[in-house]
Design goal:
By secondary structure, the protein is mainly beta. It has three helices and 19 strands. It has two domains: about 60 residues, SH3 type barrels (Roll), CATH 2.30.30; about 120 residues, Cathepsin D, subunit A, domain 1 (Beta Barrel).
């Protein structure tokens, strides 16, 4: 049966099929942003793993692992988790619900509570690989030991060499530039860093090559980083 037009109106099987196809295409177009923006809930937080509910599906992720929806767990403890989704680093607290379909704020802000030993530790990533920093305003650049550099896949073969004085004496150092450094939702590019031959420092030091590029304040024992987009 063919479609017949009366006064601009179309009837028949073919016309009905065309109308149905148009309706389906419109539905796909208008719903596409929703499908591309997963809703994420922190259902359970543990040391180095987290139970995330992503679009209604439970996903138990270990640090460094990614879900089928493309959500990567960067770090986790009993209080909060740091995740990477659609190129953004986000912090989730227990039972918090977020969606990546949000309007970016004018400022990106990261809050870091003071640890019991008086230092500030922050979860983040170097060149896309998850790591943990200790904030050190006395360090000129980001500094790490050689074992951490190896874990992060940093190639030192072409790095400029030098010497540095430590409590254990003079040690060889390597001057490098990190492609990307992320702390919470703040990501900076081309950040100078130093790799020290040996086991010092114990933690990766978040020095002034990063800190000088963000606004930094302390509020009631909480360190706040702020960066304008």
């Amino acid at each position: 049966m063919v479609g017949i037009t009366f006064g601009g109106r179309c009837t028949g099987v073919k016309c009905m099929t065309v109308r149905a196809l148009c309706a389906m295409l419109l539905a796909l177009v208008f719903n596409a942003p929703l499908l591309a923006a997963p809703e994420i809930i922190a259902s359970g937080l543990f040391k180095d793993k987290a139970l995330l509910t992503i679009d209604g599906r439970p996903r138990l992720l270990k640090v460094g692992a990614s879900s089928p929806e493309g959500v990567t767990l960067l770090s986790s403890n009993s209080r909060q988790a740091s995740i990477l989704v659609e190129g953004q680093t986000l912090t989730l607290f227990l039972s918090q619900r977020i969606s990546t379909a949000f309007k970016k704020p004018k400022f990106s802000e990261v809050k870091i509570p003071r640890a019991s030993n008086g230092h500030f530790f922050a979860a983040g990533a170097i060149n896309g690989r998850p790591t943990k920093f200790m904030v050190d305003t006395g360090a000129t650049v980001i500094a790490m030991n050689r074992n951490e550099a190896r874990r992060l896949g940093i190639d030192l073969r072409r790095a400029a060499r030098g010497m540095s004085s430590t409590a254990g004496g003079m040690v060889e150092t390597f001057r490098i530039v990190l492609d990307k450094v992320s702390v919470g939702g703040i990501t900076l590019h081309s950040i100078p860093a130093s790799v020290i031959d040996g086991d010092f420092p114990e933690h990766i030091l978040l020095g002034n090559s990063f800190l000088s590029k963000v606004e930094m304040t302390e509020q009631s024992g909480v360190l706040v980083f702020r960066k304008k987009f």
